[in-house]
Amino acid sequence: MAFTIHSAVRVQGSVMRAFVLSFGLICLSMQAQAQDGCIGASEMRDLVAQKHVIAPSAAMAAAKSAVPGADMLRANLCRQDSALIYQIVTLRPDGKVVQIIVNGTSGRVESIR
User: Fold this and answer.
1) For a designed S-S bond to 102, which of 6, 8, 59, 72 qualifies (C-beta 3.0 to 4.6 A apart)?
2) pLDDT tens digits, 33-68
3) CA torsion sign, 94 to 110 to 37 to 76?
């Protein structure tokens, strides 16, 4: 297999995408630590087991269908007023970070920002 300029550009693009994803995850983890109203993993498991909220995988599937091709960076279950919502952060292929709010009970996508 010959090394061409096109394969070099693909490799460079993949490396850049990995860097952006890594940087985004670091920033999001710092932001998530400061967020009020979000629920820890243990309480989230209890709420899912008691069927008070949908599973995180179902919320992420709803987000994925709302923003096709995006990479899921983070999903938090949070309290918003009296409701439980999933705040899901994604990275679109064009590099734009998008936040998707999914209703924790119904699984319906409520907003995309």
Assistant:
1) 59
2) 445 689 999 999 999 999 999 999 999 999 999 999
3) negative
